[in-house]
Write a structure and sequence with these properties.
- It is built from 5 helices and 2 strands; from the N terminus they run ααβαβαα.
- It is mainly α.
- The protein is globular and about 45 Å long.
- Strand 1, helix 3 and strand 2 form a beta-alpha-beta unit.
- It has a two-stranded parallel sheet.
Amino acid sequence: MQMLAGMYRGSERTRVACDSALLCDMILTQPVFYELPQIPSPTVLMIGDKDTTAIGKEYAPVAIRPSPGNFPEFARHAAAVIPDVKLIEFTDSGHAPQMREPALFHKVLLRELANGATLQ
């Protein structure tokens, strides 16, 4: 939580807030799921295997609330359709492996950057 709080306290807080708003809008209103095959650059997709996040899950019908948010399944689908992708799964993490396992996350991130991955 300190990482997130620090982002909103930092000198770039306005940019962070605007980027967060754009991200939430995209998640709630745009079916980017169908655009994954159009990602043109090499992609490293890093996920926590225990992530069950689903924005708006509380508004779904009660009968289907348990089903959204299967990130391992979503990530494997994304890895199958994104042209040049490497999927890295953190088995002991949920939504934020960078906070749950920061040393391992940073080690993997730095390795991928050294191997030519780019940040988008």
